[in-house]
Amino acid sequence: MARNNRAPPPVAVLRGHLSPVNTVCFVPSRPITPNDDVASLSSVAPRSLLSGSADGMLKVWDLTTRREASSAVQAHSKAGILHTTTQGPIIVSQGRDGLVKWWDVVDGGGMRESRTLAIGSYTFTKAHVVDSNLLLVPTEHAETVALFDVRTSGTHPAMIFEGSPIKSGMCMSLTSMPVSDQTVACVGFEGGVVALYDFRLAAPPLLSHAVSTSTVLCMDAVCTSSTLLCGTSGDDLVALRVHPDTTAATADSFYRSKQPGISAIANRSVDDRIFATAGWDHRYLPTYLLALDTKCQVGPTLR
């Protein structure tokens, strides 16, 4: 009997955006304590989802009532919102207007902008939250990445990572990953190279490794094995395993999609057993990650 691989119907449909939704992000289920007198995001929407649309609107959805909890109508310009995430108690949005903004949810369903950072990047490269204090962002120079510390009030980055010596085109994707006793910045480039930088030093990359002949569009870390899962503009998924001393790495193409273009990838970090990809073919593919210690093995769940 043939296995039914069809996706189940949605649990809920959230309506309210007037333009295409570019980005969504679940709010972590852990308690979120705000700064000053700002109401806790968890108290406004205990199970929450962030969304940003092409007209610059930012929304917080309560997944218990399945209704809008808060919104900022003009969070960014009509260029639209590229990315939404959280950093500690704060909502972070990145717009195609070259700005990154931090938001507090306030009583009455409103949102208050607490900080704005002009990064000068108008590409599709998404900022990455390293921890509750550090944010890795693309810059106006397509080959350069900047690290900002939100504990400082200035507009100057704490660190600059140069990608021009690699000669692999513009920066396309950002993430971070713990390796041995340190956390490294991971940058994917247009030419198919992934570079690792030391957060403690504004120095050349610890290593750079060609993972594909196609552009590295997205990455996510499998922290238990110091491995990066990389999605490309081609049809291959690549696992980049970084050696403990960060001086070398090995790359294996472990899965080929039916259609080229993997634009997003997310690993379930709780157990590193399932990851999901989103492709240019408008398909979302959750996949079992059966082994990463020797060689990647995968098995699709739903298409």
From TrEMBL:
<protein>
    <submittedName>
        <fullName>Uncharacterized protein</fullName>
    </submittedName>
</protein>
<dbReference type="InterPro" id="IPR019775">
    <property type="entry name" value="WD40_repeat_CS"/>
</dbReference>
<keyword id="KW-0853">WD repeat</keyword>
<dbReference type="InterPro" id="IPR001680">
    <property type="entry name" value="WD40_rpt"/>
</dbReference>
<dbReference type="InterPro" id="IPR015943">
    <property type="entry name" value="WD40/YVTN_repeat-like_dom_sf"/>
</dbReference>
<feature type="repeat" description="WD">
    <location>
        <begin position="49"/>
        <end position="71"/>
    </location>
</feature>
<keyword id="KW-0677">Repeat</keyword>
<dbReference type="InterPro" id="IPR036322">
    <property type="entry name" value="WD40_repeat_dom_sf"/>
</dbReference>
<dbReference type="Pfam" id="PF00400">
    <property type="entry name" value="WD40"/>
</dbReference>
